[in-house]
Amino acid sequence: MNTVDAAFSQTYAEARAKFLHAAVAAGLAVQTHGLDLPGRDGEALATDVARLGPRDARTLLVISSGCHGVEGFCGSGVQIALLRDPAWHAAAAAAGVALLYVHALNPWGFSWWRRSTQENVDLNRNFVDFGQPLPVNAGYRALHHALLPPRWPPPQEAEEAISAFIATQGLRSFQQAVSGGQHEEAEGLFFGGHAPCWSHRTWRSVLREHGRHCGHLAWIDLHTGLGPAGHGERILCCRDDDGAWARARAWWGDGITSIDDGSSVSARLSGMAFEAVHEECAQALYTGIAIEYGTLPMQDVLQALRADQWLQNHPDAPDTLRQAIKCQMRDAFHVDTTEWKEAVVRQAREAALQAVQGLGRAEG
Ligand SMILES: [Zn+2]
User: What are the pLDDT digits (tens) for 130-167?
Assistant: First the structure.
């Protein structure tokens, strides 16, 4: 097996074991935030954090995986490939940048091949202010019953309702309605939750512990499921209020996109996890991106998400249907070919090096 293939895994348990081993072998200190629920194979679940560099480092780069559970197969592979790459760690040390690997932000979803958390929450829609009225998504409300009909495969009238929405409002509006986030249907898709979920609280606690001593903080959050297969779109993931956009372009290039101006493959979202970086690490100048790697066409990814949510809502579904849906789900968020994995790691390593150089210049 080549070295890139060997960094990727077939189960959460395998990914976690490889991550912990690679972190210790590279001399990193590891901390574990355990989740008191069983994994799919009965394994323990946790968000694991590995740090390279002193606690009082002036600059810190965070690299995270599994914000969206099943997407962690990609991000974990990237993290393990980087942990096994001494030249990369030497480059970070030379720039004076500390590294923080956060493995499996949503370990339950990773283990069970779901995008959402054990609370059925989309972690990257969960960072809204729950003390204020929650955002209303009228488009989702109109589509909910067609997206998740009583039977699966979906009856023809459900597909016709979806086609009619797209025909009258356009594909982009449809994507916005479905994936922008909603707080009304707790058993629906892209549910932002009614309170901070476990992974939300864990992410804040990691930031409080590791992100409060630095002057500059950067974050690369690894995602999959949107865009052309194997292409990693770099999407700005921070508030654009302190020159972050200019910094991000200087570090990562003009190809960087934004969910706010329509340049990204992603819809406009509310409640994203980067809000916690601004709130918990207010002392730091913060610059962040998500890398969004394409897998399958958007309609295929959406069908997998609908099927998987339907399955979650119908625990008595027959075993053959269950297995088919779980395979559909993993294939929608991970491409199990050497070519795809090599492309994913190459682009992540490049972006990580650019971040380290940018942080080093900012401090130096
Ligand atoms: Zn994602």
Answer: 999 999 999 999 999 999 999 999 999 999 999 999 99
Q: Distance, CA 257 to ligand 1 centroid (Å)?
A: 15
Chain segment 202-219, per-residue pLDDT in tens: 999 999 999 999 999 999
Measure 56 CA to ligand 1 centroid, in angstroms: 31
- Ligand 1 centroid–CA 320 distance in Å is 27
Q: How far is the CA of 33 from the centre of ligand 1 (A)?
A: 21
Question: What structural domains does the chain harbor?
Answer: 3-128+192-299+330-363 (3.40.630.10)
pLDDT at 71 over 90: yes
- How far does the centroid of ligand 1 lie from the alpha carbon of residue 223, in Å? 4
363 CA distance to ligand 1 centroid (A)? Answer: 31
Q: Please give the biggest Cα pair distance in the chain.
A: 61
Counting every residue, how long is the chain?
364
SS (H, E, C) the chain: CCHHHHHCCCCHHHHHHHHHHHHHHCCCEEEEEEECCCCCCCCCEEEEEEEECCCCCCEEEEEECCCCHHHHHHHHHHHHHHHCCHHHHHHHHHCCEEEEEEECCCHHHHHHCCCCCCCCCCHHHCCCCCCCCCCCCHHHHHHHHHHCCCCCCCCHHHHHHHHHHHHHHCHHHHHHHHHCCECCCCCCCCECCCCCCHHHHHHHHHHHHHCCCCCEEEEEEEEEEEEEECCEEEEECCCCCCCHHHHHHHHHCCCCECCCCCCCCCCCCCCCCHHHHHHHCCCCEEEEEEEEEECCCHHHHHHHHHHHHHHHHCCCCCHHHHHHHHHHHHHHHCCCCHHHHHHHHHHHHHHHHHHHHHHHHHHC
Per the confidence metrics, is the pTM higher than 0.90?
A: yes
